[in-house]
Design goal:
The protein is of the alpha+beta class. Helix content is 23%, strand content 36%. A hairpin with a 3-residue loop joins strand 17 and strand 18. It is globular. It starts with 14 loop residues before the first strand and ends in a 5-residue tail after the last strand.
């Protein structure tokens, strides 16, 4: 099992184990001094569970996704701080408390050399299929999820692969259709229903924005495969600062095929604002709407594919001023408001 000390920048989907054996997932590629933005996912337990590594087993504290749920779990179990660069409160892990770091690309190389069980064997098959259809370099792919820290269960674990880099992400998204089997109809229906409940969206909206690279399937192996994407570089902390000023709903024209919309947080460029309505103020400040909204940032990955496809988007979220350029940014997936970014033809 590959584990390292935090001697290089943290990227999205890195896994962290602290001195108490608790396992966290890093969020994004920019982190405050002396800490990592990450949420707790597994805690050690003396009882036997689905997720074990040798004699040590783990409870999964994050049982479903969606920013509201993940943050509520984080609030119960770990430290939170206000991040002035993001303008929100975030869960963190202090660097001094980190015992090991598990990086997806390093872990995948270990799996490729010696798959230990059927889940890891299926990860190798999925990796080979992904490379065959997209042509991306082997060093641009990693393995995520329970496999990343070696606590997978052959009976229930999926295969999660991470693709790193802008060009690589575009190559995969544009070539993945038809390269894997689709998940069984009943599995997909259950997934869409859960997403509809979690994100409070009509089922037809969830179906329309569901990405083709989510929940692929190895039919002969009866294993689900999920693809994620990460930027391969990191930004210096504090390069930009978001100052939240209002709650808004807008219709915007979004540039299509922007690779950053596939990363986390997803970022999409706005070509033109079609309509913008202020729903409420967050501070005593007058928003100068003469400044154009330049981008949408989403912390809910369910909206990444809609932003990637671009076109006319209906967006609801927090309007912030991005310093030092004073650009306007709409953020989706924060606590202040039920937010979304969906094709304009749908309503919520």
């Amino acid at each position: 099992m590959i584990g390292s000390k935090p001697t290089e920048p943290f990227l999205d989907h890195d896994h962290i184990e602290d001195s108490s054996g608790r396992i966290y997932i890093t969020v994004g590629n920019t982190h405050p001094p002396g800490a990592v933005i990450a949420y707790l996912k597994y805690v050690p337990t003396p009882r036997r569970t689905y997720w074990c590594r040798g004699f040590q087993c783990y409870e999964r504290v994050v049982k479903k996704y969606g920013v509201d749920y993940v943050l509520s779990v984080a609030r119960e179990h770990q430290e939170e701080v206000y991040d002035p660069s993001l303008g929100v409160t975030v869960p963190i892990v202090r660097l001094w408390s980190i015992a090991s770091v598990y990086r997806p690309r390093e872990r995948l190389q270990e799996v490729l050399k010696n798959p230990r069980d059927s889940v890891e064997a299926d990860a190798v098959i999925a990796y080979e299929k992904l490379r065959e259809c997209s042509g991306v370099h082997s060093g641009s792919i990693g393995v995520d999820g329970s496999i990343a820290v070696g606590i997978q269960n052959p009976k229930i674990s999926d295969v999660d692969l991470v693709v790193y880099g802008c060009r690589e992400a575009l190559d995969v998204v544009e070539s993945i259709q038809g390269s894997f089997e689709a998940v069984p109809t009943e599995v997909e229906a259950e997934r869409l229903t859960k997403m509809s409940e979690i994100y409070r969206l009509p089922l037809e909206v969830v179906r329309a924005i569901s990405a083709p690279y989510k929940r692929l399937y190895l039919r002969e192996r009866k294993r689900e495969v999920n693809l994620l994407f990460s930027d391969d570089s990191w930004r210096r902390y504090g390069e930009s600062v978001l100052v939240p000023v209002a709650l808004v709903e807008a219709e915007v024209l979004v540039e299509s095929r922007e690779c950053r919309s596939l990363f986390y947080p997803g970022v999409a460029r706005v070509d033109r604002v079609l309509d913008l309505r202020v729903l409420g103020s967050l501070r005593e400040s007058t928003v100068d709407l003469r400044n154009e909204v330049t981008k949408i940032v989403t912390y809910e990955s369910i909206y990444s594919y809609s932003l990637y496809m671009g076109g006319e988007i209906r967006v609801r979220g927090v309007l912030s001023i991005e310093k030092p350029n004073n650009d306007l940014v709409i953020t989706v997936g924060t606590r202040e408001i039920h937010s979304y970014a969906i094709p304009r033809k749908f309503s919520v």
